[in-house]
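Closing statement on the NAP sub-project.
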Amino acid sequence: MSPSTIPVALVTGGSAGLGRAIAMRLVEKDYQVWITGRTERTLRQAATELSLGSRRPIQFAVADVTRPQDVEQLILRIAKESQRLDVIVNCVGTSDRGLIEGLTPDRVHELIDQNVVSTLNVCQASLALLAESQGVIVNIGSLASKVSPRFLGGYSIAKHSLAALTSQLRLELKPQGIHVGLVSPGPIRRDDAGSRYNDHVEDGLPDQAKKPGGGTRVSGLPPEVVVDAVMKCIVKRSPDLIRPRYLRPLIAIGHLFPRCGDWLLMKFTSSKS
Ligand SMILES: NC(=O)c1ccc[n+]([C@@H]2O[C@H](COP(=O)([O-])OP(=O)(O)OC[C@H]3O[C@@H](n4cnc5c(N)ncnc54)[C@H](OP(=O)(O)O)[C@@H]3O)[C@@H](O)[C@H]2O)c1
């Protein structure tokens, strides 16, 4: 069977949060969209809701993307049922709260699995399909891919690694016509933003650590702003986007002048009171 002319996109972690918003936009842009997650019930529900009013139903596949065998099955299924793959958005990721002082090797492994190995598995398994379509991979980082504020436990370690994976892969895959980009958002607005880390905060951390971004004084981004950046990365093949935009020069200044960077981070992560 020859491949269809309809572009196909895979969004990992597409059943909730940012991944779901990205899947919605890709549906609106007329992609055939696949979403993955580990929980069949939430995936099925998301796929049903996202398919409402769409010309073609969303496909979903239960897969833990930290497991190479799950990812292999997933990509084989996409190849069989959709015959092509044009865009991958690697959105699976987990944040953290804590101090480096209390960070255990097990927690580092978990965070690297969730934020880095997940993406590595999906990228490696999809290379042949992406080379055929001259496709695009978008990895979802965080401001923690660029700076390492206080109270985020091992999150910055993992998201910095994801940034490294993204830049190296972009250079490696350029000759094959595959683009790899990173979108690094600050805290994203959502109903449970202030309560997600209530159970994860260790003794001795200030209350602000429970807040989005570990209490970083950056206003919550509307999810659409981040989705727009993902679409820009796909359409314009942008290598590296930071949202909110105004933080890019501050981050660059911090990298050029580390003392100034530390001062800025302390200022942005100090409680107002
Ligand atoms: N939320 C923010 O404020 C924010 C800010 C900056 C960056 N980010 C980044 O944006 C991304 C999405 O964050 P979010 O807060 O929107 O996520 P979320 O609401 O926690 O949703 C996570 C999604 O990923 C799925 N998932 C988790 N682990 C998985 C695994 N191993 N295999 C397959 N699916 C898995 C979840 O479904 P199951 O649980 O059913 O598997 C769910 O669909 C992450 O990379 C995060 O680091 C978020």
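The domain at 8-247 is CATH 3.40.50.720 (Rossmann fold). With this model delivered, the sub-project is considered complete and its resources will be redirected to Aim 3.
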